[in-house]
Amino acid sequence: MRAALLIAVFAVSCGPKTRPGTSALFPKTGEVPGWSQKGETRTFQAGDLWQYNDGDADRYVRAGVERLLTTDYRYQDKADAIADIYIMKNAEGAKTILESESEVGSQTAQVGTAGRLYGASVTFRQGRYFVRLVAYEEAEASQALMDLGRAIDKKLVRE
Amino acid sequence: MHDRATSRRDLLRACLAAPLQAAALQNKSRVVIARDARLRASGSSVDSARLLKMLDRAMQSFYDCDSPVQAWKRIVKPGEVVGLKVNCLAGRGISTSVAFVEALCERLQQAGVPAKNIVIWDRLNRDLESAGYRVASHPDRIRCIGNDTLGYEDELAVYGSAGSLLSTTLTRVCDAVLNLPVLKDHGIAGVTMALKNMFGAIHNPNKYHVNVGDPYVADVYMLPPIRQKVRLHICDAITAQYEGGPSYMPQWSWPYNGLIVARDPVALDYTGWQIIEQQRSEKGMKALKELRREPAYIGTAADAQHRLGTNDPRRIERVEV
């Protein structure tokens, strides 16, 4: 009986990489008007981040990334988008990433502690979180991405 | 006296150099750039008929042929399995486009390559799916597989600084490879096109990003199955990216609406690098050299140890059609 319990505990500890609560950082379908979540939230630890964005991963690792959570979204029937939440060791890491990216073509976005809007992309930081939202179709993307970004931001503030 | 000696030496040097330069000019690496300003019918979607015509124009110009099928027959022999090495790391926004690969498959089949002898491949099934491809491994149809389907060789392939396990799709399935990179900036290596696309054929690309990827990118390309099997490079420059790569950053992407064809991967990369630098300059961004990410690996690939092609603009014949 005790052995069975130990095996059960071991099995739980060796389960999928998605930690309880991580998907709670992303708004569910219907939470933000027009946005629906597609598929599962995927998690990449710092050491595996290259499998998600090889070549880009190194700068996140240098800035102290702990893990990445990523989810696909669809806006009405108009646009697909992707939402990445990088969980850094501290707020300084999130600031480093945001400030390392060019401001060319961007405007200040009223989301998070600091953010930028680039048409079909929004980036912002909130505490130790760095968030990137990217839409694949630019038309109507900006306002819709901002709505999604603000909803994510609210959840991050509560964390 | 000194002046006279120098002038004699100069004269001798000039006499010797002239025939060498003439020979070099005859052996220029051809890079054909085909573009179509009206490629996108509406919004961001590509007109597949115009894309096919652009591909035909590029191929006929490159091979100096009257028909596209003639051009394709020069590349692949009957019975060979042709691998199409796409680049899907960054998902749908800045990957080798499905529409382009479909056009290419259509022409390959018209040139006599049966569907079962065409294999679209890249690093991971997930990468392919995220770029809009449907993973398929039925042996009688066009296959579309990531390296995670068939795995890697057990023994390391080694050249210079590179020691990697090679994809068995490359080593055991494909007889010939068409390299289909995209035209984009790379945050570490400067740019990524033909040479660097072969990082998708090895198990450990993440180990080779130090020192701006130099000499690793060139060394990986030297691994015999890569160097020997790649027959042609066609860079998908329909959408290109001048900053923030290799991930997709829509804010730094632009519709170049082109395809770039070359047999020489170094000449292609050099040409693509100049296109990216020009776009960076027009957008008010610093040159890659100023940012300490000038793609030095392109020069290394051209050096006496590698001889993978030329990065000398005088030896590149750039043709725009």
Characteristic key phrases:
heterodimer, A: alpha+beta, seven-stranded antiparallel β-sheet, globular, disordered N terminus, B: about 325 residues, Rossmann fold, eleven-stranded mixed β-sheet, 12 helices, about 20% strand
Summarize the structure in words.
The complex is a heterodimer of chains A (159) and B (321). Chain A has 159 residues and is α+β, with helices and mostly antiparallel strands. Chain A is built from five helices and seven strands; from the N terminus they run αβααββαββββα. The N terminus of chain A is likely disordered. By secondary structure, chain B is α/β, with parallel strands linked by helices. Chain B contains twelve helices and 15 strands. Chains A and B meet through helix 2 and helix 3 of A and loops of B.
Short description:
Chain A has 159 residues and is an alpha+beta fold. Chain A has helices at 2-13, 50-53, 57-62, 91-100, 141-158; strands spanning 35-45, 65-75, 79-88, 107-108, 114-117, 121-126, 129-135.
**CATH homologous superfamily caption of chain B:** LarA, N-terminal domain
Helix content of chain A: 25-40%
What about the largest sheet of chain B? 11 strands, mixed
Overall helicity of chain B: 25-40%
- SS class of chain A: alpha+beta
Gross morphology of chain B is globular
The number of domains of chain A is 1
Distance between the termini of chain A: 38 Å
Largest interface, chains and sizes: A-B, 26 and 31 residues
CATH fold descriptor of chain B: Rossmann fold
Strands of the biggest beta sheet of chain A: in what spatial order?
1-2-3-7-6-5-4
Radius of gyration of chain A: 17 Å
Mean pLDDT of chain B: 92
Distance between the termini of chain B: 54 Å
